[in-house]
Amino acid sequence: MTAPRPKLSWSDLIGARVGVWGLGREGHANLRKLASLGVEPILVDDHPQADPDGRPVLATSEGGLAALEQCDVVVKTPGLSRYRPEVARLSGLGIPVVGGLGLWLAEADLRRVLCVTGTKGKSTTSSVTGHLLTQLGYRCMVGGNIGASPYDPAEDSGSGDFDYWVIEVSSYQATDLPYSPPVVAVTSLHPDHLDWHGGVEQYYRDKLSACSQPGAELTVANADSDLLTERVALLGPRVEWVSADDDPGVSGSDWMEPLGLPGRHNRRNALIARHCLVAMGVPGAADDARLRAAAAGYQPLPSRLTSIGTVGSVTFVDDSLSTNVLPTLAALDSFPGRRIALIVGGHDRGIDYAPLAAGIVARPAPTYVLTLPDSGPRIRAEIDQAALDQAALDQAALDQAARHQVPDQALPFAGVTDRPDLESAVAAAYRWAKPDGVVLLSPAAPSFGQFRDYRDRSEAFARAMRAIS
Predict the structure, then answer these.
(1) Cα separation of 312 and 429, whole Å?
(2) What phi, psi does 457 have (nearest 5°)?
(3) Within 158-297, where are the H helices?
(4) Per-residue burial over 77-107, b = 16 or more CB atoms within 10 Å of its CB, e = otherwise
(5) Planar angle of CA 139, 140, 143, nearest 5 degrees
(6) pLDDT tens across 319-358, in order?
(7) Mutual orientation of helices 325-333 and 264-279 as an angle, nearest 10°?
(8) How far apart are CA 186 and CA 275, in angstroms?
(9) What pTM was computed for the model?
């Protein structure tokens, strides 16, 4: 169990001895915020780099922890697990270990804040919500895990000069929140980040904790997720369920059509966004005509089911933001009937790839899989096993069909192969996908190791496509 969240705000740190632990993107936002408050913190990082302003940075294992033990408050970056023994030691000494987002929420007008969480889908839902609010005439900041910190003076985001804030909350950040706004959205749930949280059930509890902190009133949640519906007790005082099949609309007049987002999962994400706006009392959110007009001009997130070009009649789709099983399955579902060469694999976090394998093998259209290091061999092994299981079922069905003189049907799954790198995988995928298929990069894994980040992986994918053309 996590310790109770310290209920402190940024203003409470004025005049205190503050340690900043972790100097990544959010860590530097924390530094800028403290500077605006006149606070000179102690800087600590696991792998310290030279500070641009020349301030000393201590290594955690080389005097850094001892320095933090002399602080009144430690502001931790989200990437540092709350379950590390150093956090337990600091907490045991009575030193609050807090996060920047939690400090901001403690003094924000929560009626104008929407927190969006979920294993996948939270970025798209956040960006759609922000776009709709902006087009409806409101000044909105979309931030948190998806972008700028809402308190960062460098972004002019902590001034309060906004009508609404849409904050994407990661499972890491959720463990730092002492408060929740009245409305919280949960887009999906699936095992992830198990090394950080220490186990799957703890991950689920941490991910959903934003739904039940003080201030929470309503959770707008994905009704199509069995993992969520089974954990309704973690979803706060009241739940509003949203399914991809809700609000079908009339062909040609569906309010979300101008968003241009493919797939049932994105339909559900857009519906969740609308339900949140209605629950927050945003004028115009319940009006189909106004919302359709507001949906126009939406720019999808880069590297999220983005068509980057064609070679011949083969379409290349970049879904590099896919770092888990759920978005990759959703990506496959977004091209019904199309022939797909799927490129998967990356940093191996030990997640269960059996559901991905089952979905690939059961896909009714031709599918060929190319796997990449490091998780590639494990993914291939799961697919091989799923293919054997499916073949046994298919053979039984064929035997029964033969007895009833039903014609045989070819199995659509085309196989799986390991590739050493992305460039060779793209070339092989293109050869198989011709003449009119899809080459889909949807890795179901992070990019650590081979690439700097998902953007670097996307750029490598685009280069490989251009090399073919």
Answers:
(1) 14
(2) -65, -40
(3) 171-174, 194-197, 200-208, 226-229, 264-279, 288-295
(4) bbebbbbeebbeebbeeebbbbbbbbbbbbe
(5) 150
(6) 999 989 989 999 999 999 999 999 999 999 888 999 999 9
(7) 110
(8) 12
(9) 0.84
